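Hello,

Following up on my earlier ticket. Below are the two sequence lines again, exactly as submitted.
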Amino acid sequence: MTPLLTAENLVKQYPVRGGMFAEKRILTAVAGIDLELYPGETLGLAGESGCGKSTVARLLTGLTPPTSGSIKYEGRELARMSKAELAQYRKEVQMVFQDPFSSLNPRMRVAEILGEPLEIHRIGDAAGRRDKVAELLRRVGLSPEHMMRFPHEFSGGQRQRIGIARALAVSPRLIIADEPVSALDLSIQAQIINLLQDVKKDLGLSFLFITHDLSVLRHLSDRVAIMYLGRIVETGSRDQVLNRPLHPYTEALLSAIPSLDPKKRTRHVIAKGELPSPVAPPSGCPFHPRCPYAQPVCSEKRPELLEKVPGQRAACHFSEEIFLKEAK
Amino acid sequence: MPALLEITGLRTEFRLKSGVLKAVRGVDLTVEPGETLALVGESGCGKSITAASVLRLVPPPGRIVAGSIRFKGEDLLALSEERMREIRGNRIAMVFQDPMTSLNPVFTVGFQVAEGLRIHRGLSAQGAEREAVELLTQVGIPAATDRVKDYPHQLSGGMRQRVMIAMALACGPELVIADEPTTALDVTIQAQILELLDRLMAEKQMGLILITHNLGIVAERAHRTAIMYAGEIVESAATAELFANPLHPYTKGLLASLPEFGTPGEKLATFAGGVPDLRGDLAGCPFRERCPIGDDACSRETIQMREVAPGHLVRCRKVS
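Thanks for your patience. The regenerated structure is below:
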């Protein structure tokens, strides 16, 4: 199967200024990542704040141009697309944002919020658009009567439903969702997760799902990729990565999640210290200062993201020794 | 011996233009020394207002209209403001959710940690600063001698939360109230902070009220758990008992809706509807509208908390 979306050696750097006389420095938010997203699949991208996962979303939607590297959609390179092709790309790849409070224009009625993408992409006439808006509202579990209301008249969960309806308005093929449930209350979170799964199944969409919550990641993803300091450190199928991680960072992330069984106190492999600054990333492996297994070579040579078992890749010099020993 | 903290019949209301909002509607809670009590609920359920009530820091136009809050037998609601100030930050301390907004950006962290010591202990400026260095070291801040001179913006989120904890612990409080202490932090940092709180609680035999919506943290850290809904405690029990044997339909629903308990790719359990409007009078059970087992009598009767097993209390007439 050919991938729907491919990112190759994607890099995004931002210049930062320390102070008036300080030297200009470079912050590398995304430090060369490769991604493939296949039709109909959900790829979960996880990592802690500042690891670059939201920048990846902005690069893939075309909201921010990459510093280098390429993004291909159905084999065509984004940077070489004609205006018409780019418009088509922007129609087919939609985004759902994290915060349903700041991502809807407070001065627009729901009918305008959902109608705007239809107008921009010249879909239907006025009456047709109104029918489409009503259909979209029903699709996300709201009532067409809500059409004339403003965003502030809705709860957080309802607003996120509107955000999802807006993404669905132009019949996309791929939805990039950046932490779509993390601002919501527990009982509402489950409703939105179910809705996302319903639309994915019914409309046959592909999803890139960005989250820091590994239990949500496990629930929604077919494949997962774990990011650390601008790089993908591990990728594979959901069960591979979350049941048998091959990178110490994935292991630390998984073991830091409190267990819901009060009788089972999991042994926490606690990652020491904190996320280093992306302005001055560590030499060698970016995780080595926090890694419990670090060896001298880890600070000298950066490990490549290599296939360790079929379908699962990890960027660690010692994956085999640490995680695959007893399996042999 | 009286409990460390005993709240009975607490009611806190906000007089708004649109009516009286009853945020806390008759809460009973106790905390023993060395015990961690988790207070769990979704936004707007009244858990933070309950905490603010204990410290008598309910923001206007809110006020406590009924109930008593006894701290080692002494009714905090009857104290003068001056006496209350001697307790606040000294014997009862608070750790807030967001260290960026609850630390003062124009003072060094050393000054802020030392402030309580100067006020409550009467330490000199130098004495208090020496103590602050000691406290920051205890909460795991490296090179504390240098860090005391830093301003909040110079520290990371995890370090700022450690500073908040050092501030709360400065005067050796007997009770700490932590309102979502790790919500703003990443999981690897969250694990570090929770380990730290655990260790300090055990060492100093402090009581802890842990306010959170993260049920994983509750399962791992709390001795007892109280579930709040629409201003009331709807269920409370020892944590292991509550997770093994949830009885209130709201608790059951909340646990069932977690992705951890779902099968990947399958639907998660949800409940319909939303939280009731807390303005005006609520007759009967506030969960009635969303409840899968409720009947007509639930919306008429006032439902009392009942002990259905030793130490396991539930506010539901359908539970036998």
